[in-house]
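SEVERITY: medium
COMPONENT: batch folding queue
REPORTER: lab tech (J.R.)

DESCRIPTION
The queue accepted two submissions in a row. Attaching both inputs and their returned structure tokens so the on-call engineer can compare them side by side.

ATTACHMENT 1
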Amino acid sequence: MREWEKWEKAANTSNIFSYASNILLDYVKQGIENNIEENKSLIIPQAVLHIFSCEIGLKALLLKEDISYGKTHKLNDLFELLPEQMKENIRNLTKEKFKIEFHMDCNFDDQLSQISNMFIELRYHFEAEALKEIIVGFIVAFNSSILHFTGSYK
């Protein structure tokens, strides 16, 4: 497989997981509105899918830039490998999307740090003594910003 095909395949994979996550998010919202516990419990798989989409999207952008990323799953490590201008663009777009949706500012670096290893943590949430707070709004805004730069499913 040629390098440009890898980046496009990764971008498509990111889009697919984001799409699936958004479907689950609609069920979560319905669960909250109608107090349906089973729907509300979908927040964990929803967050796992969205965070995985972020990871694959960041890896797609790194492939496009011909930047090696190793075997990490940590979002902040992958984000830091991006070119400075790309990081700034994603940071600004995420903050803008978050502000539009929630009418408040977000601390991008703090929230990225909080979700950085959440893909691993949430997959095994049943082993944890306490469930870590899931910052869905930031995850969705960050994912949407990444997909803005990877493009739509092709």
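ATTACHMENT 2
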Amino acid sequence: MLNIDQPPRVEIRQKERKEFAKSFPPHIGIGAPEDTLQSCFGLMPKPPHKDVIKYNLNANKYLRYLCELDWIHPEDQGRKFVLSYSLADGTIKIGEIPRRNSGIKEGKFLKAMLLQTPESDPNFPTYFTPDRFYIGAIVPVFKHRFKIIGCDLFVYRYMSANPEKFPQEVIDNVRNYHMREGNLKDELEMAVREEQAAETRAQLAKIGQAAVAEPSAMERCLTALDVVEGSASPPRPATPPATTDRISYDDTLRVTRQSKPTCDEVLPLKGILKSGLARDDHQKVVCFTGPAGDEHREAKSKAVTYPPGQQPHFVEDEYFCERYKDPDATERAERRSHDICPYEVIPKQAIDTGVGAAKTDKELPGYLGTYGVDCKEVPDFMRLSPDAYDRVKKLRRDVPEISPAAARVADQPREPILPVEACLEAPAEATEPCAPRQEEDVSFACPHPEPRLPCCDPDRKE
């Protein structure tokens, strides 16, 4: 503005501060390294973050391996262990398989914990993962060396389902082990069937490509008529009706009313007309072409009765008495349990009489009372007790039954009955106190006097 040149700006140099590298302090040996590391991130340490989704998806899922101890001392030879890797939190636990007369207490060898690899940094440790477990692998555990010699079939299933988590060499190693053990027979059969099905599909595809599609019946018909695509004629107009006569709705009703029905006998429906006679405008008719009204009704089965003395003996049948009950006994028992009239009181002339007719006296439709009387007013002695059938059943059960042996004895001829004089003047040897007892019919024999002291032995006469 004033044609004055400004001098160059003055550059102020600032001193560069040295940055010191931040490093985490070494683990003090108290607690897990993850817990100690949280103290470096803030004044109030927080618990380490846990993968809850992984824990929920893999809860109670373990990869189990059979291990043997890489022994040095002879007493450790033959000791076998089960190494279980938890897929939920990555912990490893080891338990020893019991042996007889080994002198070593079996059970838990290592509790569930995160196992560090030999090459890991103590401050930032790395832990064992399933991709390092295979047949023949050595797993060092606190100065002990375990050699994996087997695994469950679930381990191979898990590896096959998650091939991105395992090297191919580990998957092949585990598969070869189960092939030797014969645990993959089903997989082999399924693979063979799938391969055969693939070959069959390939052969059918080749045959289908070589085959020429035969024309259908419609295509042959169009070819015979020389019909080419796009040469079809326009649609044919609609054919006019043969007649133009039209009957109105009223005329159809009149014709229907005046025409005679096709059936021979036309009977009016009862209840439509008070007189019961058909009129000209009566259009509701019924053609009875079937049997008479009462022929379809089946005759009611009568209860089985027996003459006196010929009723069969009691049969130990649960439903024996049910056969002799009335058809409506069950319904009446249910109504009786709800304190409702067990018998249906039928009105005699209360409904039949028309309006304004003379009032008739109430008649007794049964011994339960007149029409309109509540059954609660019926005396108790007129009600059927609920255990009536059970009591009859008990009485029938108490009837003695004559045994076959007694029936045979009754058919034998009986000895003649002695006259009354023979009982009054019986011989002395037959009535004396020491007379020998004989088997006799007590119902028709003379009374036998009982012996009195002094007396001899009745079975041995001296």
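NOTES FROM REPORTER
Residues 305 and 311 are 8 Å apart (CA to CA).
No errors were logged for either attachment.
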